[in-house]
Amino acid sequence: MASHRRPKQPSRARVSVLTAAAATAVALSAQVAAHAAPSPSPKKEDVKAQIDQLQEEAEQATERYNGAKERTDQLRKQADQLQDQVARGQEQMTQLQAGLAEVAGAQYRTGGIDPSVQLMLSSDPSGYLDKASSVQQASSSQTEALKGLQDQQRRLDQQKAEAAAVLASLDTTTKDLNQSKAEVNKKLKEAQDLLNSLSAADRAALKAAQQQQERASRGGTERPDLGALPQASGMAGAAVANAMAQQGKPYGWGSTGPNSFDCSGLMVWAYGKAGVSLPRTSQAQGNYGTRVPSLAEAQPGDLIIYRDDRSHVAMYIGNGMVVHAPRTGDVIKVMKADGMKINTIRRV
C-alpha cells in the first residue's frame, strides 16, 4: 500500500541560510557587473569647455607671473644699486672719521685734545652743533668737517632704510612670483588630465574640430599672404613684420622669445626689435600709447587687448586679422581680430 506521508519540509534555519546566500550571490553578481561595465566616457564637448576655461585661467595666471617677474627684476636691480650706494657711503664715512682722528692726534701731541674735538669724536656727532656755541673753541675747518660727517651719516641712514624696504618688497614679490608659477602649472596639468580622460577617438575628433575652427578664424586659409596685407611703415610696420615672422613657433608661458612666446611676450619682442620698449604684461600694454576708438579704425601694429581682465593681447596686421600667441600647446598664428571679446585697442 502506497505511503501518504508528506515530504519532509526544510527547517526554518535552513531556509534562512539559503535566503541569505542567495542575496549575497545577487549582490556579488551586481558588483561584478558594475565593475565589468566600463564607466561612460566624458563627453568631448564638456571636456573642451572645461579645457578652454582652464587654459584661460592659466593665461590669467601667466600675466600675473609676468607682472610679478617684471617687478621682481626691477626691485632686484634697485636693491643692488642701493646696496652699492650704502657701501660707498660707508667708505666715505670711514674717510671722514679718519680725518677727524688725525686732527685729534695732532692736538694731543701739541698739548691735549681740544674739547671741541672730543665732541666731534663722540658717539653722537649730531649733538655737536647744539653744543658748539657754548664750547667756542672749535675752528671753522673742524666745524665744516663735522657738518660733512653729520650729513654723510644722515644720507647713509636713509640709504640703509631704503635698501631694507626694497629688500622686503622683493621678498613679497618673489613669493607672488612663485605662487603664480605654481598656479599656471596646476591649471595646465588639470587641462591635460581632462584631455587624457577622453577616448582616443574623441581626442582625435576634438583636435579635428579645433583645426577646422582655427581655419575658419583665419578666413579659411592656413597662412595669410603677407604681401596681400596693407603695408605699414616705420616702427609699426617693422613690429608687424617681426611678429608675422614668428608664425609656427610654440607658445611658451612667461617667454619673450626668441624661440617661444606668450601673448604679451610676442608684443614685447616684436616691438623691441623695432626699437620700442613695451610694458611686460597685457594689462599694462592695455594702457600704453593712445586709444583707438573702434576696430574699424585699427591700423597695422595696433595692440588689441582681449577679455574683461585684459589677459590676452594680439597685434593687428590689417584686413581684420591679428597675429598672436594663443595658449600652451599652440603656436604663433593669425586669427580674425574679433575672434575674442575686445577690451581696448592701443596705438603704439
Could you describe the 3D structure shown?
The chain has 348 residues and is of the alpha+beta class. The chain folds into two domains: 44-196, Helix Hairpins (Orthogonal Bundle), CATH 1.10.287; 223-347, endopeptidase fold (from Nostoc punctiforme) (Alpha-Beta Complex). It is 59% helix and 8% strand. The chain has a six-stranded antiparallel beta sheet. Helix 2 (44-109) packs antiparallel against helix 5 and helix 7 crosses helix 8 (263-273).
List the defining traits of the structure above.
6-stranded antiparallel beta sheet, 348 residues, 2 domains, endopeptidase fold (from Nostoc punctiforme), Helix Hairpins, 9 helices, alpha+beta
In short:
This protein folds into two domains: 44-196, Helix Hairpins, CATH 1.10.287; 223-347, Alpha-Beta Complex (endopeptidase fold (from Nostoc punctiforme)), CATH 3.90.1720.10.
Q: Secondary-structure blueprint of this entry?
A:
Elements: H1 12-36, H2 44-109, H3 115-120, H4 128-135, H5 140-196, H6 200-217, H7 234-244, H8 263-273, H9 282-285, E1 290-291, E2 303-306, E3 312-318, E4 321-324, E5 333-336, E6 342-347
Antiparallel strand pairs: 1-6, 2-3, 2-6, 3-4, 4-5
Helix pairs in contact: 2-5, 7-8
Tally the helices: 9
Characterize the biggest β-sheet.
6 strands, antiparallel
Strand content: 5-15%
State the distance separating the first and last CA atoms: 119 Å
Which stretches are poorly predicted, pLDDT < 50 over at least 5 residues? 12-30, 32-38, 134-138
Q: Which descriptor suits the 3D outline?
A: elongated
Chain-averaged pLDDT:
80
CATH architecture of the largest domain: Orthogonal Bundle
